[in-house]
Design goal:
mainly alpha; 74% helix
Length: 69
Amino acid sequence: MATYLLAALRRKKFFRSPQREVKLVLRILLGFYVVYMLILFLLLGLGLHFTLKDIVKTPTNTCGIGNLF
C-alpha cells in the first residue's frame, strides 16, 4: 500500500514540475538509447560468435577416441 502511495506521489510530482516536457523528452531519448545499445550489443555478440567460429576452427573430437570406432 505504501509503495503504491509513493509511486502515485512521484507521478504527481513529475507532472507538477515546470520542466516536465524536458524530463519526458529526456526519458524517451534515454529509453531509445538503452534499446539501441541492447540491440547493438546483441548484434555485436552474434557477429563476433560467428566470426570467431569461422576463424578458429577447432576439431570436433580432440581426444581421438572417435577414430577407433
